[in-house]
Write a structure and sequence with these properties.
The protein is mostly helical. 75% of the residues lie in helices and 0% in strands.
């Protein structure tokens, strides 16, 4: 039997959002989050380096899904981008309620929005590297990745504002088509 509860990470993330919404991000301490989750501060720090990161717990898994999807895809730059963004969308789809609940925190707190932008930057860098691994020139890969992640960000924000039953991957594909038409128009 494990000494540490298997779901501590999940409970910490839920407790953090609860407390941040109840009493404010700035007024909530790591000790309070740990207490609400039924773990020690030491356990908290075993999972997260600071009080911000608890809100970004799945970033590494999403980075990996993005890179793996592009690595195994083939076709045009658009096909590769769609494969990567579809993998990200699949990672987010079942988390709509959780992500929509925490979105006001991202919008209200500059350091959380800064961290969210860093996450998007990480996805853009990962996507650009994955595209370059397919032989796409680094400058074109970086441009395609930047545009793709911007489209994902705008689309995901719209999706989070909705009821959650919409297919995020389809919305991202449609938004990429709309962006291409917009940029391709006169």
């Amino acid at each position: 039997m494990s000494r540490w509860p298997d779901d501590a990470r999940t409970r910490l993330a839920a407790a953090a959002v609860d407390l941040y919404l109840e009493q404010g991000y700035d007024r909530t301490t790591v000790a309070q989050v740990a207490g609400r989750a039924g773990v020690t501060e030491r356990t908290y720090f075993r999972h997260f380096p600071d009080k911000r990161e608890v809100l970004f717990a799945n970033q590494a898994a999403i980075d990996d899904a993005l890179v793996d999807a592009v690595a195994t895809a083939s076709g045009t730059v658009r096909d590769l981008v769609v494969a990567g963004l579809t993998a990200v969308a699949a990672s987010l789809q079942d988390r709509h309620a959780e992500l929509a609940r925490r979105q006001p925190l991202m919008d209200q707190h500059p350091d959380l929005r800064e961290r969210e932008l860093a996450k998007l930057g990480s996805w853009s860098t990962a996507l650009a590297a994955a595209l370059a691994a397919h032989g796409i020139a680094p400058d074109r890969a970086a441009l395609a990745a930047s545009v793709a992640i911007a489209v994902l960000d705008v689309t995901a924000r719209d999706w989070l504002g909705g009821p959650g039953d919409a297919d995020l991957a389809r919305a991202v594909r449609e938004a990429l088509d709309e962006a291409a038409a917009l940029l391709g128009g006169s």
